[in-house]
Each structure stands twice: as C-alpha cells, then as structure tokens.
Amino acid sequence: MIPDFELYIHIPFCVRKCAYCDFLSAPASEDVRERYVQALCREIRESGESLRDGKMKERALHGVIRASGENEPSLAKRTVSTLFFGGGTPSILEVGQIERIMKACRETFLFAENAEISLEANPGTLTMDKLEGYRRAGINRLSLGLQSVHENELRLLGRIHSYEDFLESYRLARKAGFTNINVDLMSALPGQTWESYRECLEKVTALAPEHISAYSLIVEEGTLFYERYGDEEKRREAGKETLLLPSEEEEREMYENGVDFLRKAGYRRYEISNFAREGYACRHNCGYWTGVEYLGLGLGASSYMEGTRFSNVRDLKRYLEVDGAPALVRELPEVLSEEEKKEEFFFLGLRMMQGVSAAEFERRFGESWEREYGASMQKLIRMGYLKQEGDRLFLTEEGVSVSNEVFAELLL
Amino acid sequence: MAIDQKKIRNFCIIAHIDHGKSTLADRIIEKTGLLTSREMQEQVLDNMDLERERGITIKSQAVRTVYKAQDGEEYILNLIDTPGHVDFNYEVSRSLAACDGAILVVDAAQGVEAQTLANVYLAMDHDLEIMPVINKIDLPSAEPERVIEEIEDVIGIEAHDAPLISAKQGINIEEVLEQIVQKIPAPKGDPQAPLKALIFDSLYDSYKGIIVFIRVFDGSVKKGTRIRLMSTMAEFETVEVGTFGAGQFIPCDELSAGMVGYLTASIKTLKETRVGDTVTDAANPCDKALPGYKKVTPMVYCGLYPADGARYNDLRDALEKLQLNDASLQFEPETSIALGFGFRCGFLGLLHLEIIQERLEREYNLDLVTTAPGVVYKIYKTNGECLELTNPSNMPDPSEIEHMEEPMVSAEIMVTTEYIGAIMNLCQERRGVYISTDYIEKTRAVLKYELPLNEIIYDFFDALKSRSRGYASFDYEIKGYVPSKLVKLDILINKEEVDALSFIVFEESAYERGRKMCEKLKDEIPRHLFEIPIQAAIGSKIIARETVKAMRKDVLAKCYGGDISRKRKLLEKQKEGKKRMRQIGNVEIPQKAFMSVLKLDEE
C-alpha cells in the first residue's frame, strides 16, 4: 500500500505581528500578497510535475528527494490525506486567492475523498463572503485564533481583535456551514490566574467548538515578549520567583486544571496541548506526531519526505524572485539517521496521549525497542513518568508535566 | 679553553612584582646587541604565554649576552631570571645561588615593597652583591630621592649612586650595564679543581631530552664527561654543553669555572635532576656537594580529574610532561566516587596550582575538575602513629585521632596605614596571630602575622587586595606545624556523601563554611525531577542544609511540522548538558559546582 501524505501551505502574512509570535509572518501589501500567491501556485504545480514525470535531473536538483527507480510512487499518484493552511493569517487572503491555491493543489495532487482541509483564520479578518468562499474551495475545518476572552489579555498579546469580533466570526463560520472548528487559547500569560483562564475555558466550551488548542505561553527569542519577559522566563526555568509571569507552580496549575475542566466539558486531551470532542482530533497535526510524510509549500515551509527533513527559503524577496521554483526554494536538507528517526518516533509519538506502539516500532525499525531503550524506559516507568499497557507506551500525567526531561532521557 | 673568569658577570634581577624586572631584562639583552629591536619579542625572557598574561615569571631561565664596556673589554653577562613568587622560594634561592650579584629593581613611585624585602634578604643570605636600580623615573609620581632614602633606611644598602632609569623608555640602561661590570664581582672558582656545578633549573626538550641548567663553580665539563649527580649518585655521559642565547641553546666546547650554561646527558626524567643538586665529574669527584640542596616538598594538595573520564590517560601524560619541567609538581593516582579516576597533586602553593591547572587546560586541551585544595595535616593517632594527610577522604575516624597539627606560615604584609585596620580584621578572621607592626615610614607599615596555611590557600590574596584597594602586598614562609582543632566537613547531596567535596576545616569555622558550601551548591546544581537536599555534616551531625526544589514543569507546549528539527536539537542539547555532569546517585552535578565551592567568599 502506498502511504498517504500531507500538504502544508504557508501564508506568511498578517495584519500586524503579535507580541509573542515567532512564526514567519509579517504585514505585506496587496501587491506582494498577489505575487506570493502566484509564486506559491507555481511551486505547487511544479512540485507535482517534477515528481510525476520523473524528471530525474530536476529531482536531484531538489537535493532532497532521491532520484530513485521506476518503482517509486510519484507524489502525484499518492493520496493527500490532509491539507493545512497555516500562517501568519491565511484568512488575510482574498477568497479568489485561496480558490486559486486550492485549484493548483487539486490539479497537481490526488486528494482523498474525505481529506481534512484546514485553514487558520483570525477574528477580525473574516466575512460571510470569505467563509462561504472557503467552503466552496473545499475547506472543511477552520481554526480560529482567539487566545483569550479578556480584552486586556488580547491587548497584551497584541491581537487585532476583540472577544466580540471572535464571537461574530464564530457565529458566521457556523452559519457558513463549518462543522469542524478549532479555537486557540493560551495559558500562562503575564498576570493571568487560573480564575481568569477558567473564564476563557468556560466561555469557549459554552460555544461547543469541535476542537480546542490550549497552549502554555512560550516566550520565544526574537519576539517583543522576549524583550519584556525573557529574563523572567529564565528565572522561572531555574525555579526562581517571578514577578510578571505566573510561577512554575501556577503555570502547572493552570495547565492541569485546564485539562480537567476540558475533560469534564467533553474534550479529550489527545496531545499535550490539543483537545477534541470524539472524532475531531486534527488529523493533519496527528500526522506530524506519528511520522506521516508531509510536503510543505510556500515561504519557510518545512517538509518531511523520504526520511529527509528540509525547508523552503525564509526570505520572501528570494522566494518571489525565483517565483517559487521548487528546485530553488528548497534548502537545508537533513537526512535523518536511523537513530534520529527513532528519537523522533518517541519524542513526537509520546506527545500524543495514546503514546507509541511497540509493534509499530518493530515494523519501522526491524527490531524491538527493548535493546536500545529498555533500560531508559524501565527507569522512567519506575519514576512514574511513563506507563506501559499492552503494546502501548505513554506519558503519565506526571510525565506530561516534565515531558522534555522524559524525551531527553529517551534520546540515544 | 677556559674563559677568563674576570670577564664574566653572573647576576640576577630581583624586584617586587610589577616593578619592571622583565622589562629591564629585555633592555639589557637589547643594549648588549645580542638581538636587534625587531627580533625582540616584547619580553624575551618570559616565553610562556601564561607568564606574559600574568605578568610574572614562572620558570627561571638564563641568557648570556656580550657587552663591550667603556674600558674597551668585552664582558659576558649571564642574566639568570628568577621566579618572582613566594610559591617558588626554593627555586629562587637556587637561582640566587648561581649568581654573584643581584640587581635590585625598585619602582620610583612605589618604593620598597614586601617582596622587595623578602628577595633582598634572600639575596643577602647568598652573599650576593646587591646593586640597586631605581626604575620608572618617567612616571609623574616618581620620587627617586625618597626611594633612595627608603632603600638605605629600610634595607641598609648604599643607594645614592643607583642608576635612575626607565626600563620601559630605555633611559639610562647603559649605566646599569657599566655598574654591572664595575660592582658585581667576577666569579672566583678554581678551573683546575674537580668539577663542581650547581643545577639551578632544568627542562625537558623533545629533541635534546632533559636539559640541565648549571653554574660551574670549579673545574669544567665538556662533551663526553661522565658526570655524577651527588644527591642520587646517578651517573650520566655528557652529550652536549652550551650557553644560553635569547630563547635558544648555543652549543660550545666546554663549560669552565665561573660559567653559566647547560648540559644534556641521557637523563630520562626530571626527577633525576633536582634543582639545587651538585654535578661533579664521576672520574674525579669533588669531595663535598654545594650547600643548600633540599628536596622540595609540596605544601598544597588537590585532586585533579579529567572532566571526561576517557581522558584519564591524557591527563597522566600531560602531568608527566609538565613534571619534566617542574620537579616540584607531584602527583599520584587516586579514585573518587564522585569524580572517578584522577590524581592527587602536590604544589608549592596556590599560584603554582593555578598555573599547572591552566597549563593543563591550555597546552594539553584538557577539561579539568579540581577539588578543594588542602594543606598537609599531621595526624597523631592514639596508637602512636603519625599520618601525613593530603586527602580529606583518608582522614581516620575521630576516635582514632589523638590530636592534629596544621602548618603555619609567617606572613609579612606591607600596607599603607589607612588599611591597617581592614587588614588586621582579615588576618583575625583567618585565625592569624598578631606578631608586630613595623612602620617603614609615616604612611606604610609591615604587619607580621602567623597564619594557618590552610586559611591563605584559597582566596586570601584576593581578599587582601580587595580590602586594601590593591595597596597591600604579601609574602610568607612556612614556619612549622602547630596543634589545631580540625574537623572533616562532608557534603551530602541527596543523602549521599560526595567525597570530592569533603575538606578539613578549623572546628570553629565549620558551621560557617558548611552553610556557605550548601548555599553555593544550591545555586550550582540544576533542578531535577525530585527534590535534592544538600547537607553539610561533621561525622553524623548535620550542621547546614539547603534544598534544590524539584522541577515541576518542563514541557514544550507546541511541536508541529515546522519546528521538529529545532525541537530535536533542543532536546539533544538538554541531554548533552547532562552528559557533562557528574552523576552522584540520581543527581547530576555540573563540573563547575566542584570548583565554585573554592570561592566561597565572593559575594
């Protein structure tokens, strides 16, 4: 059986950069956005072509996908199981632009009938026209970046919308026929308490979206937040007192209470920061954690194909100059060793609450994980961070809290 | 053919640190035309990087130059460089013994300092003619008149015709050279007598093997002479003799009475060529060795461990190589539960320790973990045995100890009067016994104290400098052992004793030290998944405790397709960080935690 793969499409534009955001995204003029869409469509089409007609030379030029024999199934013959428009704020694009991108994809790749096609959208950028257009283009899952229901927190984060804006967008999305909606929330914000976070959870669960992503804030380098809270974050990491950021203990409390709250509201935590009603886990993201191949298209997009991780250029000017030509935008190929593949198997797989499967490990690597990992696993099980039930190994509640330590221990 | 001794001058330069000894040496070499200015390295004698950075001279070396004096004659000037630090007192004394005179360099602004005195007295002990030189007269704050007066008053030597020079600017160097010829006596050995030469230094050269630096007093030595080293009666065939160019060895036919030079023989290890030993002719030996030879005994010990256990053999090789050039360095293998395989090393003092440590790290590219330095304690056991304790781990059970003794030093601290109070407080804190205060002049005094060596081996010098704003200078010599109330302080991390952190401490200071150790370790040990108690204990009694709180949360909230490589790298870094730590039970301790406890007084 030929395995399915996923598509990721990056839209590196937003109305305004948020204070905590370290994604590849910036405001841009309409003209630049249009040129980008053109280049992106070319990248999409050529990605398929070059792989489909077996242009060996060009494939080798890509430097990442090996020029293998005839038996190699071309991407065009493999089924795309999910597509994800991420950003940035993909919903900043015109409906027509999204339609053209979708058209390029459909004409290049073979989509599964039930393919999950998601788009990230920000409240304040959505209209009924847009939403209906997305539906027509085949988008069947919407991810709304809310982050908080409190206006002060939204301002702190530098969001462009109010809670009211979100409610309006949510209502419109339902009206347009979206039956699979995710809402993003954030915890561990400066000044936030469990009480204020609980209010977010209450209000959002009352709307009954199918999916909730609830992240703890990560203060990333290169963001405005890093300038403001970088030192605090370091103090917190060292277990010292903090003035602005919630303490480690408060952060943990918010997270654990949040998990508990969401469980009672009918949302199962299927990954460290992701919660869904039955049957609505994000298939695209699950693919990342279970080693499914994916092709990233657009500025800075990452791919994992044929055991190789690579990513596209991050310089918008360059991307536009070469007009998205795949051979010229793909760079930084990193061919994973068996060892690295095993490491990823664990540190990605264990992010999911279902954990990893011993049989799956054997299938992929041709041997039991016992030899190389047995001792570390037993130690982590003894310490109460991992649990083994039958074929599956997964993080315990304690293990989730210190999962980095667990993953680091499981590196070879 | 023996060189006419009347045309030889063997001398050294003595000075307080920073008074310009090395610079003057450079000028002398320059003026005597042995090298052109362009060839001169900044400081010819100090050819180890480390020395240049610290501004001190570690190993004594010698250089031979030729000076055409105003009387029209050519004189051979053998300048023997001496180490300037008290740790190397014995080496200094052997270098002095090779000379007939000494140039005393005194800073025209700072005047006589503690080390000036110490070195002058040492030179006087060796009956050297002392020739004062006032340096740095170009400084705005120079007061040559006052300094000349001070030299005459404090040291009691004639100084009115001392050359007023600036070694840095090259002012009046000619006069120094003339005075060397006029004032420093020529050697008066007997060229016909049996060979009698003093080893004042030696080094290992990968081409020539051991190179022995000698001053010939009587007789002569040449290629083929079968020599005998009188302390060990070991005999060797001389392979080469020669003199010292600037930074190079120049072979010659013969070294005769009065000359300074080197010889090589098939000597394998530096241990066989002890500084201070006498070289004679095996076929025609002299009847008595030169006086003053003693076996150097290390005063300070510590454990040195490779940070990476796999480099144990590299560390051993490096120590062996260093020992080739430094017979006072001693080491023997030891094992620590915490640190694995390493060496217990003996040093002349703390500076010596630091220098060796730095050389191992720089020249041999080794990452080291050093345990707290300690002195040699004498333990008198109830069964009558006496034990010399160099490693706290070997301390017997207190019930077996009758009493203990620790080494004391006589210290002289020169300080401007405004800081006398602060320095006296410091000495008090360090268990010093006050002896006297001698005023050199209105604003300066020499404080004399007796201090336990173990109180000055850590950071005494730093404390002295900081409490006197850099104005105090310090010199000491070992005085002997006195009974003392000492205890072994153990550190327990997560209830496990960490042998590498144990040390011997004065009973009354134990509580304070224990508390500081625990505080420091608390900051150095990263949080783990569990709580880690850090305790200081004497025997079974806990005297201080701190806790490293458990890590409660360490999660990457997000990990999607775009950042998997980055996340893997983060995790690898996290794992790598742990590899560099030492595992004690379940606790990972960073290497630097072992060293940070050496500097407890830094706040």
Q: What is this structure, in a nutshell?
A:
The complex is a heterodimer of chains A (about 400) and B (about 600). With about 400 residues, chain A is an alpha/beta fold.
What does this structure look like?
- The complex is a heterodimer of chains A (412) and B (603).
- With 412 residues, chain A is α/β, with parallel strands linked by helices.
- Chain A has two domains: 5-289, pyruvate-formate lyase- activating enzyme (Alpha-Beta Horseshoe), CATH 3.80.30.20; 338-412, Arc Repressor Mutant, subunit A (Orthogonal Bundle).
- Helix content of chain A is 44%, strand content 20%.
- Chain A has 17 helices and 15 strands.
- Chain A has helices at 30-52, 56-62, 95-108, 128-137, 151-157, 163-176, 194-207, 224-237, 248-264, 283-289, 316-321, 326-329, 338-349, 358-365, 370-382, 397-401, 403-409, and strands at residues 5-11, 79-87, 110-121, 141-147, 181-187, 211-216, 268-271, 274-276, 294-297, 302-305, 308-312, 330-335, 356-357, 386-389, 392-395.
- In chain A, the strands form three sheets. Chain A has a nine-stranded mixed beta sheet, sandwiched between helices.
- In chain A, helix 3 (95-108) packs parallel to helix 4 (128-137) and helix 7 runs parallel beside helix 9 (248-264).
- Chain A is globular and about 55 Å long.
- Chain A starts with a strand and ends with a helix.
- The relative contact order of chain A is 0.12.
- The model of chain A is unreliable at 52-61 and 63-71 (pLDDT under 50).
- With 603 residues, chain B is of the alpha+beta class.
- In chain B, 25% of the residues lie in helices and 35% in strands.
- Chain B has 14 helices and 32 strands.
- In chain B, a hairpin with a 2-residue loop joins strand 29 and strand 30.
- The radius of gyration of chain B is 27 Å and the shape is globular.
- Classes of the chains: A alpha/beta (412), B alpha+beta (603).
- At the A-B interface, helix 9, helix 10, helix 13 and helix 17 of A face helix 13 of B.
